[in-house]
Amino acid sequence: MKKLFPFLRSMRFGMILLVLVMLCSLAGSLVPQGEQAMTYVRAYGASAANVLIAVGITDIFHTWYFYLLEVLLCGNLVLCSLVRFPAARRLFPALKEHTKSAEPEIPFEPGQTEQAEAFLRRNHFRRDGNLWFKGAAGAYGSFGVHLSILVILVFGSLVLMTPRIQDETVMPEQTLTLEDGTAITCLSFHIEDETGKLDYASRLRVTSPDGKSVAEQEIRVNEPLRFGGYKVYQQTYGTAGRVHIRNSANNAEETLYLTEPCFLSIDGKNGIFFRALYPGYLEEEDGSYTLITSTSMGYPDPVYDVQSVTDGSAASVLAFPEETIQIGDVFFTFLLPAEYPGLRIKHVSPVLYGGLYFGFGLMVVALYLCFFLAPVCVRVEEEGFVLCSPKARDGLLISLQAALQDERPTGGQS
Amino acid sequence: MNVLLFAAIILYFAASVLQFAAVAAKKAPLHRVARILLLAGFAVHTAFTVWRGIAAGRLPLANQFEFASGFAWAAALLGFLLYLRLRQEGILTAAMPAAFLILSYAAFQPREIRELMPALRSTWFALHIGSAAFSYAAFAIAGGLGVSYLLRLRKGKEESDPQLKQLDYVGYRMVCLGFLLLTVVIFSGAIWAEQAWSSWWSWDPKETWALITWIFYAIYLHQRLRLRWQGRRMAVLAIVALVLVLFTFAGVNLLLPGLHSYASQ
Ligand code: HEM
Fold it and tell me: Which tens digits make up the pLDDT trace of A7-40?
């Protein structure tokens, strides 16, 4: 036990864990993740596939041992940071004390004192008598980095593990009502903007369950809509057929979207069976049609493949936009197809995302402190200077020497 | 306008050759000419990049060619700025061939200008790709310095030689800069992915390789602190790490397609 604790909080254990995370990531990037078992059998043969699946490499980022590595890494970082925090606090005052009492180790040539001071001033050192210093905050840099790793791992995992995601298609001018009563209306959708540039944008109106708050926004890729705890993304799009139905017996009419095979009938017996919408067709010499299943440009010549059903017998028919088929009193007029958006609706916790993004920001700032604001103390005397810094000493010496050398005429050096 | 691209490649090449000759012959005037050629190459490369940005009507960093060109441009710029600050010829000896090789790789990629995919129209994407160019450039210079370090060791210099110590230190600082920027790359990518595809992390191969590279550099930094590793070992680590960077940059698109496969278009 006496040896275990120091090991668990050691940088060595931390590095071992990092290597293991790296190896898992490597395996996870080389072997396709989360596919059907047959895919692996086809790619690697039955026995290798069985081993890969049994060891979890086919879904490695969700295995118990990958989670365990993350937990151990968090534990290691917490212990290490707790133990080292007091030392970080003492670092800067101790550095100043040490600089005050140390002997000047690097001699100046005559007249270089002013140049060195000018260099320190240019580099934003603060001055206290002949003591120059900066980077007090830098002592906390590595603490901040490790804290931010913890924050990102914890909040990031929670964000990934607790998603409430719903993928829905909403036709233009139709409304989708979510479980809690929030209503999302798709006012319009377009693929290209006015200039012909690909845009994929939906104009949405979202209404809260009590109807009191309403938001309207055009969403597109990269521009989701935020409303209450929801985020609505422009995810995909599709093309749907449209049919206008008029019952001449009572003059009732309605327009419907056709996305999948369905039977349209008033009495349940006679009507139209919609099979599919095709983007184009070729007319053969004998007057028959060959249907095209996909084109590179949407639906240039749409055609509906339908069956008219009357008195128990069905006949296949191709219907072109604006064409009407009459079955009894009912008129089915096929219209030009319409594009509709596929929306992704995500319920997000602002606290979790706030935590994650705070972690991102903290890490960037803390890394900057670590690397570019490391604690440094310099004492300048007539005969030379003392330079103390646990991390930035070599760099400062190189820049200082370069600055001093710049003042003199020199050739290049290699 | 391709002539500008090829002129930049030739100028970077000439600068590298002269720089190597200057190192071998220990001739300061040759260094000066190499620097002038590098600056000329950089100016031409900048003109090409600006022209391409105007022709495309957007930031010219949207596909593999443009990103590789940006990467080379960043290597030249970073190398020169650092040289101005530290006056270390070793930095240019690494940066010049890096700029030449990366821009040559770019020249083999499809170059036609395409409309920006809607998913790429995002400020986060611009930050993501811009910081990636500079991060990779810093790592390329660090790797180049590593190679330079090992070559000088083989020529019989001692690890305690002040010049080698400086090379080692500057390489380490390049890794620090690259690491900070790679962190920005990963985070801006994560925020962008969340805005575009609703998930901040999806273990896509490019993402995973960026993480592998990041962890490798974290290990590099810790080994330097923990075991006071310096010199040869650090140089070897910087070179191995650069191989990972290059795989993340080019290999993943070719061998492990995923969400980022647009980049190989
Ligand atoms: C991916 C994970 C990690 C990252 C990105 C990271 C990052 C860093 C950075 C940037 C530094 C400062 C280095 C420098 O100034 O040159 C540092 C220092 C340090 N890290 Fe980590 N670290 C990680 C994991 C760990 C782990 C698991 C441990 C285990 C205990 C650890 C222990 C330390 C220690 C003891 C220091 C030295 C602190 C100091 O002297 O200021 N790190 N780390």
Answer: 888 999 999 999 999 999 999 999 988 888 888 8
A162 in contact with B, Cβ within 8 Å: no
Residue A413 pLDDT grade (very low, low, confident, very high; cuts 50, 70, 90): very low
Closest partner residue to A364 among B184, B203, B219, by Cβ? B184
Q: Does B261 have pLDDT greater than 60? A: no
Mean pLDDT of chain B: 89
pLDDT tens digits along A117-153: 888 898 889 988 888 999 888 989 999 999 999 999 9
Q: What angle do CA B16, B18, B24 make, to 5 degrees?
A: 105
In a domain, B155, yes or no: yes
As a whole number, mean pLDDT of residues B72-85 equals 93
Residue B257 has pLDDT above 60, yes or no: no
Same domain, A181 and A314: no
Measured in degrees and rounded to the nearest 5, phi and psi for residue B140 equal -65, -40
Distance from CA of B4 to the nearest CA of A (A): 29
What separation in angstroms does the CA of A105 have from each of A237, A382, B237?
71, 12, 32
Binned at pLDDT 50, 70 and 90, residue B141 comes out as very high
User: Would you say residue B16 lies in a domain?
Assistant: no
Find the mean pLDDT for residues B203-232: 90
Q: What's the number of domains chain A is made of?
A: 3
Lowest mean pLDDT among A73-82, A164-173, A363-372: A164-173
A414 with B26: Cβ contact below 8 A: yes
pLDDT at A409: 39
Chain A residues closer than 8 Å to B179 by CB: 367, 371
Nearest CA to ligand 1 atom 4: B218
- A356 CB contacts (<8 Å, ≥6 apart)? A151, A152, A155, A156, A159, B200
CB–CB of B170/B90 below 8 Å? Answer: yes
- pLDDT computed for residue A406 by the predictor: 64
Three-state secondary-structure class, residue A181: coil
What's the gap between Cα A363 and its chain centre? 18
Cβ A323 vs Cβ A333: under 8 Å: yes
- Domain around B139: 62-88+104-111+118-264
Touching A: B residues 169-228, CB under 8 Å: 169-170, 173, 176-177, 179-180, 183-184, 187, 190-192, 195-201, 203, 205, 208-209, 211-212, 215-216, 218-219, 222-223, 225-226
* Domain encompassing residue A265: 239-340
pLDDT of A184 reads: 92
Q: What is the DSSP letter of A317?
A: E
User: Quick check: B180 and A368 CB within 8 A?
Assistant: yes
Please indicate whether, in this complex, the C-beta atoms of B219 and A19 are within 8 angstroms of each other. Answer: yes
Looking at residue A211, its pLDDT comes to 85
> Any residues with CB less than 8 A from the CB of B183 and at least 6 apart, and which?
A363, A364, A367, B214
Q: Is residue A18 part of a domain?
A: no
Q: Are residues A287 and A333 in the same domain?
A: yes
| CA gap B205, B252 in Å, rounded | 7
Share the mean pLDDT of chain A: 88
Clarify whether residues A327 and A249 are in a common domain.
yes
Q: Checking phi first, is residue A14 left (phi over 0); if not, alpha (psi -120 to 50) or beta?
A: alpha
Q: Where are the alpha helices (DSSP H) in chain B?
A: 2-25, 28-56, 64-86, 89-107, 123-154, 162-197, 205-226, 232-246, 252-255
Domain count, chain B: 1
Atom of ligand 1 nearest to the CA of A80: 30
Residue A379 in contact with residue A104, Cβ under 8 Å? yes
